[in-house]
Amino acid sequence: MARVKWWGTGLVALTLSVLCAGLPLLNEVLGDGARPLAPGTVVSIGAERDGARPVTITVRHDGWFLDEEDSLLSGYAQLTRADVVFNLSVVVPLAPFDARDMWQGLGRLVAMGGHMRLGARPEPIETTGGLTGLTGTIIGPDRVGTATVYATDTLGATVTAAGPPPSFRSVAAQVQAMARTVTIAAPLTSGSSDSEP
Amino acid sequence: MTRRPAFWLWAATCLIGAWIAVRTMDAAVREFPLGVITGVVLLTPATVVGVWALRRLHPVRTRPIGYTLIAVAWGAFAAFGLALPTNAAFQAVLGKTAGPVFNSTWGAAIAAPVDEEILKLLGVVTLALMAPSAVRGPLDGWGYGALTGLGFQIAENFLYVLNTIILTGGTQDVNAALFSFAGRVVGGAWWSHWAMTAIGGAGLGCLLGRTSRTSVTVAAGAFVVAMALHSWWDAPVMPGVLLLPFKGAPILLTAIIAYRLARRRYLSHFRRTAHAETAAGVLVPGESHVLAHRKWRRKERWDVPAGEPRRRLARLRAIELDLIEDGLGGLERDPRNADRLRADIRELRRELTASPTPPRVA
Q1: What is the pLDDT of residue B335?
Q2: CATH homologous superfamily for A34-184?
Q3: Distance CA A94, CA A85 (A)
Q4: Angle at the Cα of B163 from the Cα atoms of B228 and B241, rounded to 5 degrees
Q5: Closest residue by Cα to residue B325 from B153, B86, B132
Q6: Nearest CA of chain B to the CA of A141: how many Å?
Q7: H helix intervals, A52-190
Q8: Fewer CB within 10 Å: C terminus or N terminus of chain A?
Q9: H helices then E strands: how many in chain A?
């Protein structure tokens, strides 16, 4: 075969560039991918079984968007409104756990970002459907917010919402109202996305 | 090797990939040390066994450790690190164009096969450009493809330890590491990335060995099959742990078939060339049988005094194998190489015969 030392290497470099720069560039061109959610819209997450996802939340007010770029409905959904980011995540226990365990775990997950932490004393919360959990504050240098956890025997859900203080204060009541619409349905027996190689 | 541009491309891409991977996982690694340590303790022996097994999966000789590590490093750092933002971008594009519901269901089955199979297979191409003698045919392509895929698999297994900890809400670090290990290594390693890239690599090895219309078709076909099998594994069909063996079986079976075909082709060339070189007087009668088996080559060394004579015999056998494999093809093949190897063989044989205790087959 002919000498390929240079052009072969160039071809590999070109393929890497097209793949690793082209796709992010295309993603940028497509914009932020914010899909408006009408009041009453139900957002479902978790592993799909028989056409349904087990954890849901209902949007109560106008002006919220589903961030299509940062949402993977098999595990989490991200809603935004101005600078406020609202995250709903499904939690799959491998051993029995309760809301207090989840609160501590969420504290570690929030601290992972390095900029924010959970407030020390969470308070009990109950959804409109009777699901009980814990709720408290999120504190950071330039962002504030709230966090809520719900645990059942088979599944859990975490809700975090944060933004710059003025923006968050203006929607705090909406966030709290949405956090009270969480439902957790049927049991889930295995990880939602753990089968990908 | 360092004088070839592909080496520097390999080094730079591995560094960039490692940097992306570290940045992605760093915060979780710091926050969940117990789960991370458990994961590392579980994954390390599995990694060593996997590399050892794939290195030896060759009918005649064990793959060189240097080339093995180059392939594994590409998979673990370059391919894995670059796949993280590329997959995320691809899935974001799918989410924006086809909708979040479609993306959640089919995104992984569409994005991962395209991004990951290309990135992993480029490792085999890069190795062939760095060391043209490393990939001379489908068997080499299969082997280094498998090792590149294994490198990717190792890194991804570690990522999944972290992902599982996060999926459990940061509540059960050790359980998450154990669960992830059971699912991805005990239950899933048999038909994972190593198998898919081995299939694509075997086709690529055909092309790198000899360029022809047939080899281009075989390479393209093998690559498409590898992507299709990857997609099949990621697709939301046959869910549930009990069905995983049935879902994984086609992948493993295809990898085994690809290996058997590549092995048969290699051994057929081996026998033909050994016969021709024996007839030409380069090999002595009976020597090809010793050459064909690791065990016999090892055993014959016992009869030779330790030190220089034993090293010379080992070198003779290595050069004889190089001569046989030289005819397989490869990138930038030097037509004068075979004559140089034959001259080396004659010289070494002369030195061995002149020694006080000459080996029997020399």
Answers
A1: 84
A2: Mog1/PsbP, alpha/beta/alpha sandwich (3.40.1000.10)
A3: 28
A4: 55
A5: B132
A6: 18
A7: 99-112, 165-179
A8: N
A9: 3, 12
- Of residues B138, B141, B149, B162, the one with CA closest to residue B50: B149
Chain B neighbors of A42, CB-CB under 8 A: none
For B189-248, how does the pLDDT look when each residue is reduced to its tens digit (9 = 90+)?
A: 999 999 999 999 999 999 999 889 999 999 999 999 999 999 999 999 888 788 889 999
CB-based contact (8 Å) between B155 and chain A?
no
Q: Which residue has the tokens 């088979």?
A: A154
- Closest CA of chain B from A166, distance in Å: 29
**In this predicted model, what pLDDT tens digit does every residue of B13-46 receive, in sequence order?**
999 999 999 999 999 999 999 999 999 999 999 9
Q: Which two tokens stand for residue B233?
A: 């594994």
CB pair distance less than 8 Å for B103 and A196:
no
The amino acid at residue A170 is: S
DSSP per-residue string spanning A58-90: E--STTEEEESSS-BTTTEEEEEETTEEEEEEE
3-state secondary structure of B230: helix
- Asked if the model's pLDDT at residue A106 lies above 70, the reply is yes
Q: If you average pLDDT over residues B82-100, what whole number do you get?
A: 95
What residues in A contact B164, CB-CB < 8 Å? 191, 194
CB A53 within 8 A of CB A46: yes
